[in-house]
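## retry 2 of 3
previous attempt timed out at serialization; input unchanged, resubmitting
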Amino acid sequence: MQHIAGLGELIASHPFTSGLEPRFLNVFESCASLRRFSSHQSIFQEGGEADHFYLIVSGTVNLETVLVGCSRRFTIQKLGTGDALGWSWMFSPYQWSFSAVTSAPTDVISFGAGFLRETAARDSEFGHELLRRVCPLVIERLRVTRKELVQMAAPVTGQVPGISLEAQIAGATAGQTSPST
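## retry succeeded, writing output
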């Protein structure tokens, strides 16, 4: 990978890595490269090998998916400057859960996922810090995905009057199929 003068400072100043110990920043820098994607360019495809982790330096990226039985792509979330992109690289089977497509020219710092995983396995302190920072990404993606799916389902499902579809789904998942009166 190409080393770029100032890349360490760029990594250290990103919100995802802000406040990391210098030895952990060195791990990130040792497997980092700066990449540029043009508008409407694919960064990765759903189901593909999750072999990199990205920090968005500038630009906009859409996380997209295709619903089963439908060829239309749905945008689940828009990410931009200061966001981290990708978490599937950290968890087996290391396949992307969504597709990532730029909607504007985008600069990212790209990290080799295999190196980060290997380092985390050897250095439990680094591994803990990495999990502490990646797990909130997973939770946020799940929350946003659920919200988008509820909005997509609203036109094709019946709703109980006076109760939002999201509340109905939350009640059903808690074992309540109808509202209490």
